[in-house]
Amino acid sequence: MLTFFRIIAIIEGISYLALFVISMPLKYLAGIGEPNKVIGYAHGGLFILYIVIAMTYAMERKWNFGKTIWLIVAALLPFGTFYLDEKVLKPLAVKKALDS
Asked: Is residue 100 part of a domain?
């Protein structure tokens, strides 16, 4: 579950940045709206998937409210899921690998 969560977190972060870096400039500076719709739908689906997996993972690990909120807030901030992966999820994966 942790590996899948990490992958979804990174993909969701990439889609969030793609909205800001690629599709929004195309829409508002060049008047090309189609990429915004496609990337927007993809990001929306990934965001929902991320939230569902984050909540499932937090419940599985029996995390308190504060840690769980941190998972959600990370998806709302640009680069948040990358930071979350580096500072929280990656160390958990390493610890899990060492414990096995």
From this structure: no
